[in-house]
Design a protein that fits this description.
This protein is mainly alpha-helical and 345 residues long. The chain has helices at residues 2-20, 25-42, 45-55, 60-89, 91-113, 144-147, 151-181, 186-211, 216-237, 242-255, 260-271, 276-305, 309-327. The relative contact order is 0.15.
Amino acid sequence: IRPVIIGFLVLGTSGVFATWLVQSLWQFYASWGVLVGFGAGGTSIVLSATVANTWFQERRGLVTGILGGAASAGQLVFVLLLALIVDAWGWRSAIGLMAIIAGAVVLPSTVIFLRSRPRDVGLAAYGVLPGEKALASDERLVPMKEAIRTGDFWLIALSFGVCGFTTIGLIGTHFIPHATEHGFSEKQAAGMLSVIGGFNVVGTIASGWLTDRYSPRKLLALYYFLRGCSLLVLPALSGSGIPLMSMFAVVFGLDYIATVPPTVMLTANRFGRRSVGTIYGWITFSHMVGGAIAAALAGVIHDAAGDYGPAMYAGGILALFAAAFAFQIGTRRPKSPGLRPATSY
């Protein structure tokens, strides 16, 4: 884990520094789109899931929620701050601040403190009893060629693709322009996006705690259902002023990536904790594809319709379909003896 994270951090940090110096659009695509994109993807929720399943035998849901909430904490702190810096000194100053934080704080701290496995510091995974072997109850290592033959993989991947569509692609990319078109200033819109990030910290950690105690399949279906409902009402709230839009930000924020802990748990339960890195990596790939599609498609819909309303409705309907997909995960017994079902979904 350690060299992988350090490598991707170096790549992403280099991309941020390169973006600081760009002089043309193609350079922006190369530095921010490619270098920062690879760096951010390589240090994303896939490694968080791997860390949780490597270092913890108990409380894996809570730990996944805390690590997921860290990304939201960054959004909470930096979106509004960067918007203020852009207004005051321009976008290069905002990118420069990110470059300094990444290069002078994040990367050195990772090199100094991060270790790959508990045994690297003379510990056992959290929750392992004396004399007990970590993961002794689940030594499955399922290759992708077997995983993709199962219906559960596609149900998880498709639902998580909708998660990416509705979060980073739709709201993450288009919420600020959507809000400004309905009379909000850029600072107000950025502030509401920060509210989404702030409540996402609470929602994701709470989701991890719930995932350790209740059926992750049912929790996941509930999260997608609530997300779909919130997106379907967003167009009606958009012109109603700050209080109602802030209420949307709170509700959507609680649900923004609350889907991560139950999705990771379902993947580990279905395919084995040793398989999480690879299989959940491909499931996250579907999340990013969904986000990319939404980022482009919502822009096309806006240009054709003159408003983001149809895109929001489309996201809400897809989220309701994702709720139905999630509710079906693990309901059919796998045929392959190597892919035995988990004790609880």
